Amino acid sequence: MRPIQLSAGRRQAWNLHDDHKRIGRNALYVLVFVLIGRCAGALKEIAIAYFYGVSPIVDAFQLTFNLMTWVPSTLVSVLGIILVPLLVQVRLLGSEERALFLAELNTAVVATGCATSTLLYLAWPYALHVFAKSLSAESAGFSLQFAKGLAPLTIEILLIAQFSARLQAQEKHVNSMLECVPAATLLCAVVMFHRISAVNSLMLGTLVGFGLQALCLYIAVKMNDDIGAPFKLGFSSRHWPGLLHAIGLFSIGQIVLCLAVPVDQFFAVDLGPGAVATLGYTNRLLALILAVGALAIGRAILPVLTDVLQTRSKERAIGIAVRWCFVMFISGSIIVVLGWVGAPILVKLLFQRGAFTIYNTQTVATALRPGLLQIPFNLGMIVLMQMFSSLGKYRIMSVIAVFGFVTKIIANFLLVKMLGVEGILLATSIMYLSIFGAYLVAARRLIREQVK
Question: Of 127, 420, 124, 140, which Cα lies nearest the Cα of 268?
Fold first, then answer.
């Protein structure tokens, strides 16, 4: 059988040319900044574990924060994938046309944030009834208090996402460093005010922290872009139809996929007191590990792939993405082995002090191990997602996301009753396995098209 002959473009994609160097350099910058942010996040989690342990107030805070930020986080995941390629293209336009689009974008983001915050605040008492049967009365009372203060988070999170996308499109990665601001602020609030009011220290520390991050990003945007951050009401820019069409296609699948967060909270609440807190600590550890790789490569590769598509060839962009997908999958597999062995040590090092007992350490470490299995699939998936986004394949991405969510639901029903919190984490790993596999199948079709 005659072997497939690779074209010059695909052979070049596997050599260490300038595009790989750009990705590696950007990933290194992001990696350093993300590590700073995640160290602040780890210290914050240590403080919360020390002062509050696995208690009703932590259950309430984790539940309220996760559900209050679910909608804006879903919007952020959509904007992060769609906005960066568009902003790379907009950067090549004249200053007047670029200023018009960015001013209208700023206004649309603020208006969306205000509307979403209001709806979340009004709907929270009704949403809490879904969890009230299994949630303790004390936790439910704390949750109502948290909801009053955390509603404005939506505005802050959407502004952060928009300003971060602008910086990322310019291959400026200060936004990754500034992610430490909310965690550092909450850490200070918990340490300084935990004796006065646990609710206020957690609530105000979170709100002020995200506000400071948004302000710092606003300043960074004004310093790195001569247009700054103006505001204008309207949709007169010619880029809106394409942007809204892309958001409509991609958001369907992404919203469905992000439903995994409240679904997991629902299953965890049903497991009894302490389960939400255990899931929260475990997910934060996984986020700490995943952020180092996923955020670094995701933020580094998307603007480069988009630039390669705009200035050179689709074939080269696909070749670059496939190589980095392989590298990240191998790296993730190594992390799983190390994390599986070191899970108890890691949890003990970070959390076991104060109100967080040795029993809590064993519980979180046991839940962490099945969650680690998602890492290689997650890291490989991130690279392929950036590739499909830069190609504008949002319909395929939505179908894959829906497929992953359906897999997650089935796995939750089958595993949670048998394994408890560990079942939730194992179901998440199975979800990412299914998504990664689907992206590989779709990527293989793209590669075959290029060979032909």
Answer: 420
The three-class DSSP label of residue 53 is: coil
Q: Burial, 266: exposed, middle or buried (Cβ in 10 Å; 0-12, 13-18, 19+)?
A: middle
Q: What b/e string do you get for 143-176 counting C-beta neighbours within 10 Å, with b at 16 or more?
A: bebbbebbbbbbbbbbbbbbbbbbbbbebbbbbb
CB contact at 8 A, 429 and 260? no
User: pLDDT for 346-397, tens place per residue?
Assistant: 888 877 777 778 888 888 889 999 999 999 999 888 888 878 877 878 888 8
The closest of 252, 261, 196 to 431, measured between CA atoms, is 261
Residue owning tokens 């300038």: 18
Of all helices (H) and strands (E), which one includes residue 293?
none
| Cα 275 from chain centroid (whole Å) | 22
The answer to whether the Cα torsion of 149, 286, 345, 364 is positive or negative is positive
CB 415 within 8 A of CB 426: yes
Q: Which tokens is 278 given? A: 């255990």
Considering the entire predicted model, what is its pTM? 0.69
Answer positive or negative: Cα dihedral of 294, 297, 303, 308.
negative
The answer to whether 167 touches 80, Cβ cutoff 8 Å, is no
Tokens 């790789």, located at residue: 293
Buried b (16+ CB within 10 A) or exposed e, 288-319: bbbbbbbbbbbbbbbbbbbbbbeeebbbbbbb
Cα 50 to Cα 385: distance, rounded to the nearest angstrom: 38
What ranges do the domains of the chain cover? 8-451
Query: Which tens digit of pLDDT belongs to each residue from 42-74?
Result: 788 778 877 777 677 877 887 888 888 877 887
Longest dimension (CA), the chain: 76
Full 3-state SS string of 231-283:
CCCCCCCCCHHHHHHHHHHHHHHHHHHHCHHHHHHHHHHCCCCCHHHHHHHHH
Sorted by sequence, the CB contacts under 8 Å of residue 57 that are 6+ apart come out as: 139, 142, 198, 199, 202
